[in-house]
Design goal:
Blueprint lengths: L1 H64 L16 H6 L6 E8 L4 H10 L24 E8 L17 H13 L3 E2 L3 E2 L7 E9 L9 E8 H5 L8 E6 L6 E5 L5 E5 L9 E7 L2 E9 L3 H20 L2 H54 L6 H24 L5 E2 L15 E4 L4 E2 L1 H16 L14 E8 L6 E9 L11 H15 L2 E6 L3 E9 H5 L1 H11 L7
Parallel strand pairs: 13-15
Antiparallel strand pairs: 1-2, 1-6, 3-5, 4-5, 5-6, 7-8, 7-11, 8-9, 10-11, 12-14, 15-16, 16-18, 17-18
Helix pairs in contact: 1-6, 1-7, 7-8, 8-9, 9-10
Protein name: histidine kinase
Catalytic activity: ATP + protein L-histidine = ADP + protein N-phospho-L-histidine
Subcellular location: Membrane
């Protein structure tokens, strides 16, 4: 009996020690994994908020850059920009043109606002009280045009921002720093409207030192902060820059409200800083669940199970082995998920940077000094539409490539109805699709100039073939415009020549040539199929999109 009691006591002691050790390990593992998951989710969210903010600030810069020596008294100032700003597909509430008027320009401004069809053309302060032009001694900032126009927004043009503390401070800083600037959080559209942020970009005419006005975009704060995610591990709050010790939070319906923080209240689990409109914004992240309490509860459960199983001598070691195996697999799955998430984010950042670099090059080359603003605007909008179309096609295919015939859609290139397309239905890689989309747009956009003078349009053919043996196939593309000549065809732009002769061939690792025949204009491109299809890119996309499995 003594020996049996000793054995039972030893087994009980061993079981208690093992159960306590298992509970301790589970507690630490659960706590560490929850903290890693929360930190990673917060980093991803902050990165998305920063990218979203950068995209909206870029829209303001591009919009202001499209103005060339604007007349502040011209009605419908945003008319040339409407297609451009909607092409970015951002969720702005109102886009506006705020002109900086001299006292002697107030009467003409009222006439221009009335001519644009707005119901309240009289210049007035932000409280809707009329302003006497004779009392003005300095320039004032007046809203002249906006987009979209609705029953709620049509009454806003004519208001001066000079007596609005938030908007006036924003415009004064943008005027002084000569760059895009964001305002403090402010109600939009009306006094009880949704809380949002306004970003203003100064428009400085060529040769001037002071801005002629400002292009403004208003965004709701909830969508800018990405707050409405019921499945997230945390809730998001924005530190209110207007008042110390207060935060801006959004409910499930996206309504933003202010709450006060207390030194005795819960502190945020983490804080992150994002830059937008020339200033830093601090985001506070509050975990929705108590990781320490959940880890303690899990540890208690494990310990209780361990003590109960101690009485079952035969099942003790089997249970411990099974429990450890289960915990090990869970850790492996979570670690694999974290690695996969990091790879996806790195790949996304790489592709977004590539697209932004291409757009920056397009804008810089198109809006070069001395270019005709109307032609440049048309080419810029077309080129950005071509890029937007190919990105949409790539997104639909999960970046697995684009069918080559899909790049000839009417929404992407002009005169698509006159192009006879033929060739095998191959899927080209993401990099090749971007280069070919811009190439096709450049060819199509220069194919009609001058021919309307003789009463006929060119007949265009675009065909491609794949030749050669397996492993050494060649992609051969030929563009031919009939009924045209060197005298009637619109000359290629500087950007177009660089794209046709150098950028597109180098991107595909091939060669290109262009020439005129007696009856047509011809452009030919030859490249290896391995660069046109790029299986390594497809394999990489397949790899990061595959489901996560536990390591063996």
């Amino acid at each position: 009996m003594v020996r049996l009691g000793f054995i039972i006591g030893f087994i009980a002691l061993l079981g208690a020690l093992l159960s306590g050790l298992a509970a301790y390990r589970v507690h630490d593992q659960e706590l560490a994994l929850d903290r890693i998951a929360l930190a990673r989710a917060i980093d991803v969210h902050a990165s998305l908020v920063q990218d979203r903010s950068t995209e909206r600030e870029l829209l303001a810069r591009v919009a202001s850059g499209l103005f060339r020596a604007p007349s502040v008294l011209k009605p419908n100032m945003l008319e040339p920009l409407r297609s451009a700003i909607y092409a970015f597909k951002t969720d702005f509430v109102v886009a506006g043109w705020v002109a900086r008027l001299q006292p002697n320009e107030v009467a003409a401004a009222q006439t221009a606002i009335a001519a644009a069809g707005f119901p309240k053309p009289q210049i007035r302060d932000y409280g809707d009280k009329p302003i006497d032009p004779a009392s003005l001694t300095h320039p004032i900032d007046v809203l002249m045009d906006l987009e979209p126009r609705s029953e709620e927004t049509k009454a806003l043009p004519g208001r001066s921002y000079d007596n609005d503390p938030v908007r006036n401070a924003m415009l004064a800083r943008a005027r002084a720093e000569k760059r895009s600037v964001a305002s403090d959080p402010v109600p939009l559209l009306r006094g009880n409207g949704p809380i949002g942020v306004i970003v203003a970009a100064p428009v400085i005419p060529e040769g001037a030192t002071e801005p002629a006005g400002f292009v403004t975009f208003s965004y709701e704060l909830a969508s800018l902060m990405l707050t409405n995610d019921d499945l997230s591990l945390f809730s998001v709050a924005l530190k209110d820059p207007r008042k110390e010790g207060s935060e801006l939070v959004a409910n499930d319906q996206g309504v933003v409200s202010t709450r006060m923080t207390s030194p005795d209240g819960p502190a945020p689990s983490a804080t992150r800083t994002v830059s937008f409109g020339g200033r830093d914004w601090q985001l506070g992240y509050y975990a929705k669940s108590n990781s320490a309490r959940r880890a303690e509860q899990t540890a208690i459960i494990v310990a209780a199970i361990g003590f109960a199983i101690t009485a079952m001598v035969c099942g003790l070691f089997g249970y411990v082995a099974y429990n450890n195996l289960r915990l090990s697999r869970e850790i492996q799955v979570r670690i694999g998920f974290e690695r996969r998430l990091t790879a996806v984010i790195d790949e996304l950042n790489h592709r977004v940077k590539n697209i932004l670099a291409v757009i920056q090059s397009i804008v810089t080359r198109t809006l070069r000094h001395g270019s005709d603003i109307d032609v440049a605007r048309e080419l810029l909008i077309g080129r950005i539409h071509a890029m937007s179309n190919v990105v949409s096609l790539l997104s639909e295919s999960q970046w697995q490539g684009v069918k080559l015939k899909g790049l000839f859609e009417a929404r992407a290139i002009p005169h698509a109805d006159r192009i006879a397309v033929s060739g095998p239905d191959i899927a080209v890689s993401a990099r090749a699709a971007q280069s070919l989309s811009l190439l096709f747009f450049e060819l199509a956009s220069h194919s009609d100039e001058g021919l309307s003078l003789v009463g006929k349009h060119p007949h265009i053919t675009a065909n491609w073939t794949v030749t050669g043996e397996a492993g050494e196939e060649l992609f051969q593309f030929r563009w031919e415009e009939f009924n045209t000549s060197e005298a009637t065809r619109r000359p290629d732009s500087d950007f177009g020549l660089i794209l046709l002769d150098r950028v597109a061939p180098e991107a595909l690792g091939g060669t290109a040539k262009r020439y005129f025949t007696e009856v047509s204009y011809v452009y030919e491109l030859i490249a290896p199929m391995e660069t046109v299809v790029d299986m390594t890119e497809r394999d990489r996309t397949d790899k990061i999109s595959a489901p996560v499995r536990p390591a063996k």
